Amino acid sequence: MSRRLRAQEIDLCVASQPIHGESLEATQLFEEEVGVAFPLDHPLAGRASVTVGELADQSFVTARNGHWLRRLLDRLFAAHGLTPKIVCESDEHSAIADLISAGLGVGLVPAFARRSATRAPLAWIPVDDPGCRRSVTLYWGADSHLSTAARLMRTTLAGWNWTTGEPHSR
């Protein structure tokens, strides 16, 4: 993505994981907690929070290697000397939620996704670990000559209140 931004093949990129490279500019759009989604009838579904250790024996539905969600899961477990038990991988967030809801396993879900109008019936429980977060950032090439439309998009995205789903008050 870094190369494509610098080459001006794309104007803007919204990413949930850092994009490294020279000649890039960025602004953080929001940071949020990532919790664990459980089927409603799961024994841990009623908890106020869970630890990574309590998740060690759980079966996980998650994204494939390289996706920010999978990197976070692997990093959380590795910090505790553990390896997650992956039972299913999907690139589609709604499919992950549906598989969790159907009882195939549990999985990490960002707080933003909980506000989706099409969410599956799940229990969302915070993970008692300060590293269980994601940062969503907008990137563009520092030397790019952005079109009026791209500049307007950048201004709109950077000025959006991602918590309320409305523009920031002026």
UniProtKB/TrEMBL annotation:
One of its GO terms (molecular function) is DNA binding. It comes from the Bacteria. It holds the Pfam family LysR_substrate. Keywords: DNA-binding, Transcription, Transcription regulation. The keyword ATP-binding does not apply. PANTHER family: HTH-TYPE TRANSCRIPTIONAL REGULATOR CYNR (PTHR30346:SF28), TRANSCRIPTIONAL DUAL REGULATOR HCAR-RELATED (PTHR30346). This is LysR substrate binding domain-containing protein. It comes from Kribbella antiqua.
